[in-house]
Design goal:
By secondary structure, this protein is an alpha+beta fold. It has three domains: about 140 residues, 3-Layer(aba) Sandwich (Rossmann fold), CATH 3.40.50; about 120 residues, PAS domain (Beta-Lactamase, 2-Layer Sandwich); about 130 residues, Beta-Lactamase, CATH 3.30.450. The protein is built from 15 helices and 17 strands. A hairpin with a 5-residue loop joins strand 9 and strand 10. It is flat.
Amino acid sequence: MNIEDQRGFRVGEKMGTPIRVLHLDDCSADAELVAMALELQKTEFPATVQYVQNQEQFLAALSRRDFDMILSDYRMPGFDGEQALRAAQERCPEIPFIMVTGELGEERVIETLQRGATDYVLKDRIFRLIPAMKRALEGAEIQRKRREVEEALRISEERFSAAFRASPDPYVISKKEDGTILDVNEAFLRLFGMERSKAVGRNTLELNLYVHPPDREEALSRLRRDGNLRNYEMLVRSAAGEERCVLLSAEQLELEGGPALVSVLHDVTEQKRAEEALRESEQRLRATFNNAALGIVEADVNGRFLAVNDRICSILAYSRDELLRMTVHELTAPQDRAESDVLNARLLSGEIDLFDYEKRYLRRDGSPIWVHLTVSAVRDAAGKVVRAIGTVEDISARKKAEEKLKEVVRMPHATRHEDHLPDQPPLPARACR
């Protein structure tokens, strides 16, 4: 990957909005090292890098503020990492700043972190860069949210109330020491089906909101341990007794009356119900697939089996693992392979959507067995055939009965010239669009 001064390159843009990185380093070879580290993780961690080499370029980039993170070398002639950190702290203190340097003593590391650097990575351990960047971004996001809450509580009651009450998610502000509710928004009242006067001045235990009361203690324990709470799943109960599944997040903040918590509940009840319905549907489909009276197979565009049910394993006397290592061509009797290959090629090319006919498969012991096969194409959203699915019916008993009938017909005492009846061929293949 080439690096060009003052120009960005994109890493994994299709994965989403890339992280915008400002990288200061006077050595283009070291900058290339960082670029290579990002390139290796472009699928998981897409980024856009703006590379600068000196003080003038760095300060100009700071003035534009078109980045989400700063990476900086520590030792550079005329403008070192400490000067770059001070400049960044003055202009954009909320932006994560990571030192990427050749060596840095323990004392200097402590000083750098105390002065506002988010983290540091040694160039000979460049594999630590992506994890450090992720931690820095996560920390910056937490700090951003905390600042937003604190700022909202500092502005006028009227402006805060408008934002607080307009949220579609339930919000509650409570005292930290005993959980007494100070205020709730309309979404909270709708979720729990109660009047504001009933909620304010009481705590959640008194309101009997927890389906499992120990959830409250667990949430508080995590909050004390981590300083905040993120997406803690629990069941709550409305005034009418309806249970809802919510994700609880909380932050600590200071109000004039003392320490407080601002909590938000995201109702995921319908999502959980949809997930459960999907699981049940998949279980029913799996049971139908495995217990079907007909053999069912699924194959990719190369004819290799992707899935087989119990019935086809029984018909062919193969285990599931054995069949999943085989192809349709291998399993087909040699005398039927030419026709089978042609029909499958037409199906996978999109010429036909379905075909059915009689053919012979080879059982595990090598003996042929007659089956009636119906195969249809499965297409992706663009209409391209991506696999085929077929049903397999064992017709060997019918074929044996037909053969016996032919023998009877051929006997010398047969009448009405039936001894001259020709053999009946298998049903021809039928293809459909």
